[in-house]
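Support request from a user on the community tier.

User writes: "When I paste my C-alpha cells into the form, the page sometimes reloads and wipes my input. The last time it worked, I copied everything first. Here is what I submitted, just in case something in the input itself triggers the reload:"
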C-alpha cells in the first residue's frame, strides 16, 4: 500500500506564492509518474503538472510560466512551486503517483485559497 501526504496549502492573496509538497511512502513500489491535480468547487478534477521518473514534465496551459514541478527520486517527494497565484487557482490540490504497475494513488488533498 502506498500513502501520499500533501502539505503547504493555505490562504494567500492574489499574486502571492505557495509551495506544495507531497511525500510518498509505503511498501515497495516503483514510480512511473508523479503529479499534481486540482479540483475547484463544482468542477471536475484536472491535471496541473506531471513529471516522469525520467524527468519529463508537462504543464497544463493555465499554469505555464507560473508553476514549477520538481521531484526527488530518492526521497520520493514531488513539489509544486506556485507563483503569481490567481483567484481562479483556488481548489483542492491532490498529489498523484502512477506506479509502474499502472496503479494510481492519490493523496487526500490540500486546500489552496487565493483571495483578497
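"...and here is what came back when it finally went through:"
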Amino acid at each position: 500500500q502506498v500513502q501520499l501526504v500533501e502539505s503547504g496549502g493555505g490562504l494567500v492573496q492574489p499574486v502571492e506564492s505557495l509551495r506544495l509538497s507531497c511525500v510518498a511512502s509505503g511498501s515497495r513500489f516503483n514510480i512511473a509518474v508523479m503529479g499534481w491535480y486540482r479540483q475547484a468547487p463544482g468542477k471536475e478534477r484536472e491535471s496541473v503538472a506531471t513529471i516522469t521518473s525520467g524527468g519529463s514534465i508537462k504543464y497544463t496551459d493555465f499554469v505555464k510560466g507560473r508553476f514549477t514541478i520538481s521531484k526527488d527520486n530518492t526521497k520520493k517527494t514531488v513539489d509544486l512551486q506556485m507563483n503569481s497565484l490567481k483567484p481562479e487557482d483556488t481548489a483542492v490540490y491532490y498529489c498523484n503517483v502512477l506506479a509502474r504497475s499502472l496503479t494510481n494513488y492519490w493523496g487526500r488533498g490540500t486546500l489552496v485559497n487565493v483571495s483578497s
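Agent notes: The reload is a front-end session timeout and is unrelated to the input. The chain has a mean pLDDT of 95. DSSP finds no helices and eleven strands in the chain. Escalated to web team.
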